[in-house]
Amino acid sequence: MAFTAKTKEYTSEAGNQYTFQNVPNSKQAEIMDKGTGLYGKVLNSNMMPLMLENVVVVPNGLTMDEFETWEELEEVTNAAFNFLRTGK
């Protein structure tokens, strides 16, 4: 069975809209390897940029510093990570 990209619309608590898109399993494995440290602990400084680069497709090209608050950055990247892992 071939990979078919899925998308999800997401609205943050602040009312900002984002579109998530999943990636092929090989890319997901690469993201997990780069974004986690010893014993699989998620490293925010690695994982957050990977979520913004690979999963958040609208708006495109977001960086961590473009978010007004840490709270929204964390909310959006956590939601993107959950979507990447579950497709929901």
Description:
The chain is α+β, with helices and mostly antiparallel strands. The chain has one domain (7-86). The chain has helices at 25-35, 44-54, 70-86; strands at residues 7-11, 17-21, 56-58. A 3-stranded antiparallel beta sheet has the order 1-2-3. Strand 1 (7-11) and strand 2 (17-21) form a beta hairpin. The two termini are 20 Å apart. The mean pLDDT is 96.
Q: Which features would summarize this protein structure in a list?
A:
88 residues, 3-stranded antiparallel beta sheet, 3 helices, 15% strand
Largest sheet: 3 strands, antiparallel
Number of strands: 3
Unreliable stretches: none
Distance separating the two termini: 20 Å
Strand order of the largest sheet: 1-2-3
| Discrete helix count | 3
- The total tally of domains equals 1
Please write out the topology.
Layout: E1 7-11, E2 17-21, H1 25-35, H2 44-54, E3 56-58, H3 70-86
Antiparallel strand pairs: 1-2, 2-3
Helix pairs in contact: 1-2, 2-3
Summed up, what is this model?
By secondary structure, the chain is an alpha+beta fold. The chain contains three helices and three strands, in the order ββααβα.
